[in-house]
Every structure is written in structure tokens, then in C-alpha cells.
Amino acid sequence: TRFDRVIQIAENPIDLPIIREFVNNEKCLVAGSTWQADEIILAKYHEKNPNLKLIIVPHEIDNEHITKTLQLFKNKVVLYSEVKNIQLSDYKVMIINTIGILSSVYKYANIAYIGGGFGAGIHNILEAAVYGIPVIFGPKYKKFKEAIDLIDNNAAFSIKDYYQFEQTIGKLCNSPKTYQTAQSQAKEYVFSNKGAS
């Protein structure tokens, strides 16, 4: 049923004009259900690679966590809730501080990062994989069959630290074959399990 649910969402995603305008056909990494350990890695990467569009959807969106996340970034950051009469092209980082749209935000990504892998365990990776995009997550994934299967199919990549994250992004961006394999395998895996319940 989890496979069927993400397929249903992907086939009828919420239209998000703000996200579409922000991404503007540029390369975009969407990081979903992130915790601080994930956000530290993402901020460090973005400082070195400021041209990448980065959308972060934290697992917790209370003011304290959002403030801490904002402080991690040296580049200009825009909050989703504050997008009014601003030039979105001036920003490379967006933090989504609202709930209920993550599964549709993944549609705009070239690569997805799934949070939780440095804590209790990763969050839902099928929400991203259904769109046929490579998925990256931290080391705590072994309880999740889909994560193991996607790694075996070269559609997902587990990282233990910042340096592995940097290497993995580099491999996906610089090797079209690696990227295309991850894309096709991610989508095929999700759709081949349609109706599995």
C-alpha cells in the first residue's frame, strides 16, 4: 500500500508555483525530513557549491529549529512562508516551514536527500524515488527494505559523513551514466511494486 500511495501522489502532485519559480529549471537538491545533523552537511556543501538550488524541508518546523537551520547558512535563504513580493531568482536556498507538501516538492528535484539517517533511522524514501530521482541518506537505513533494495539497484546511496556526501553528489553530477541508471532504477523499483499489497 505504501508503494501505491506514493504512485498515486506522484500521478496527482500538488502544483507548487512558488517552488517551480524558485527552481526555474536549474539543478536542484531537495532534502526532506531533515534533522540538524543532516542540515549541517547540507549547509557545508552549499557553502562550497553556492550555485546549486537547495530546498530543505525540516522534520520539525517549530521556530527554534527553523532559526537554528537559518543560522547554518552563509548564503541568502528564503523561508517558504515569507515568499511575497521578492525576486526568487536572488536566492539559492529555500526552507519550507509548512507541512503537507513534501511529497509534491520532490517532483522539482534532480537529487533527493532523505533525513533521519544520523538519528533513529531514515524517513520515507519512496516519496522521492517515485519521481525517478537518485536518493541519498545517512548510515541508519538497514531496517528499511526499500533502502537496501534501492542501494542494490544503484538508485540510492548511503553516506557516513560530509566527505561521502560530497563524493556522491560529485559522482551523480559528473557521470551521466551513473545519474541515468539511478533515475531509471528508482522509478522502475517503485512501479514494479505497484499493487504488491
User: Which spans of ≥5 residues are poorly predicted at pLDDT below 50?
Assistant: none
Please summarize the sheet with the most strands.
7 strands, parallel
Q: What's the alpha carbon Rg, rounded to whole Å?
A: 16 Å
Structural class: alpha/beta
Helix content: 40-55%
- Helix-strand pattern: HHEHEHEEHEHEHEHH
Shape: globular
Strand tally: 7
How much strand content do the residues show?
5-15%
> Can you give the mean pLDDT?
96
Tally of separate helices = 9
- The spatial strand order of the largest sheet comes to 3-4-2-1-5-6-7
Distance between the termini: 6 Å
Write the SSE topology.
Blueprint: H1 2-11, H2 17-23, E1 28-34, H3 36-48, E2 53-58, H4 63-72, E3 77-79, E4 93-95, H5 102-105, E5 111-114, H6 126-129, E6 135-137, H7 145-152, E7 156-158, H8 162-174, H9 176-192
Parallel strand pairs: 1-2, 1-5, 2-4, 3-4, 5-6, 6-7
Describe the structure.
The protein starts with a helix and ends in a 5-residue tail after the last helix. It has a seven-stranded parallel beta sheet. It has 197 residues and is α/β, with parallel strands linked by helices. The model has no long low-confidence stretch (mean pLDDT 96). The protein is 44% helix and 15% strand. Helix 7 links the parallel strand 6 and strand 7 (156-158).
